[in-house]
Amino acid sequence: MRAVIAEDSLLLRIGVVKVLEAADFEMCAQVADAEGLLAAVEEHRPDIAVVDVRMPPGFTDEGVRAALVIRRQYPRTAVLLLSQYVEERYAADLLAANTSGVGYLLKQRVADVEEFAEAVRRVAAGGTALDPQVVAQLLVRRHSDPLDRLTPREREVLELMAGGRSNSGIAAELVVSESAVAKHINSIFTKLDLPKADADHRRVLAVLRFLGVATA
């Protein structure tokens, strides 16, 4: 199998290359930033790209954004993200784009040579490899999501709120009374842990929660 690696730490990059070469991977390219990664994938069309989450110039989410581009433009190239810490949002972003040929591991896993090489092989073959710590945090976040507390009818009401409908508009759409809509909305506020405040303000906050927009 053919691979490229994008990692700004020279020592770690050398280590990963040696591990993969020992596992019979052909290393097509070694780069230190997202721009170089995308160019390497365009040129070599590898089976897998092993990508650091944070790379130059900003050291934020350059690797994740490049990985999403790869999955969209080069679907035959699998992607394995490496991260120093558990950042479940990035794993969720990658999995939301495609659930095959993806992986997210902590960099400490590279030290277990056989396990790491097997994870790379699995992802390159179209499978998935998620670090146990990432899985645990994704499950915690999923189970603690207040949106999961809503009933199907409450989710319908919230979706219509997100579409800009008034209470009367929601009532007409769902063929219920406005008082019923008001009760659903009050229940939504309670389940989303939105304290009593200006009604319009809580309405906006509920919609932002529904859309997945973080609020302070």
UniProtKB/TrEMBL annotation:
Q: In which domain of life is the source organism classified?
A: Bacteria
Residues carrying 4-aspartylphosphate: 52
InterPro entries of this UniProt entry?
CheY-like_superfamily, NreC/VraR/RcsB-like_REC, Sig_transdc_resp-reg_C-effctor, Sig_transdc_resp-reg_receiver, Tscrpt_reg_LuxR_C, WalR-like
Question: By its UniProt entry, which SUPFAM superfamilies does this protein fall under?
Answer: C-terminal effector domain of the bipartite response regulators (SSF46894), CheY-like (SSF52172)
- A matching Pfam family: GerE
Residue ranges annotated for the HTH luxR-type domain, each copy included: 143-214
Asked if the Swiss-Prot or TrEMBL record annotates the protein with the keyword Transcription, the reply is yes
Q: Which UniProt keywords apply?
A: DNA-binding, Phosphoprotein, Transcription, Transcription regulation
Specify the Response regulatory domain's residue ranges. 2-122
What is the name listed in the Swiss-Prot or TrEMBL entry for this protein?
Response regulator transcription factor
